[in-house]
UniProtKB/TrEMBL annotation:
Residues 236-255 are annotated as: Disordered. InterPro entries: TRIM/RBCC, TRIM8/14/16/25/29/45/65_CC, Znf_B-box. It comes from Phodopus roborovskii. Residues 22-56 form the B box-type domain. GO terms for molecular function: zinc ion binding. This is Trim14 protein. The keyword Ion transport does not apply. Gene3D superfamilies: Classic Zinc Finger.
Amino acid sequence: MASETVRAPAPVEPNGACNWRCPEHSERLAELFCRRCGRCVCALCPVLGAHRGHPVGLAQEEAASVQKLIQDCSECLVTKKRQHADNIAHLEDTGERLQAYADSSKAWLTQKFTELRLLLDEEEVLAKKFIDKNTELTLQVYREQAESCRKQIEVMDDFSTRVWVISLEPNPIQLLQAYIATKSEMEQHMSPLELSHPVPLSFEPVKNFFKTFVEAIRDTLQTPMDTRLKQNINYQLSGSSSSKPGTLLKMSPSPERSLFLKCKTQEWEREGGWVGEEQKWRRDRK
């Protein structure tokens, strides 16, 4: 009885000779290949043996097709390895350029924030100068008015002395004559005095302006930066809002550079086994 153990087929010799024996009919050479079972069989197997009715082909032709597919697969692997190496080089180069771009962007931000600080410092100086200028102008008016009041006091002190001297005159005629001489001036001093009430100088408009300015900046900065950038029209137009850090654009290689191997058993048998695979692959290349 023939052994049921299936032995691995030996490599095809260059001259086409084959020393394989059929696992079912050990006295016969295995010259055919059963595509359904994936075994090398003799000529009797598809006619009388266990492989009756199975699709078969010449083992030598099937082996040649397999060798061709193996060669194509090896070439595909070499191509893919080269593509992976290209991807690595491209990623490393892009990473270096990204790091340089990040450093230059941070340097640009440092410059812009420095300019912003200088502008804010300048604005602070201008606001304080505005307060100092208006304060000095107002104080100057106050000083001039106070000086005018002091002079009026001196005039009134002098007139008060004159009136007191007139009041001491014992001669009625002399007293009346002195009174007549000072009557108009006396009436002037006896008229109600206008009191000076300085109008308070307010710097609240300046303070409110910068208070609103600071609150607007604070409200803006309290919003997460991602949200602020997405709301920015320039950011939306740049298309950056649709990409995430580390996004990779993956592209399929052209059919001429790809080898698509399909291993569905039924399709493989229906299309002629390894020979059919080779023919289909050649059609795909065209």
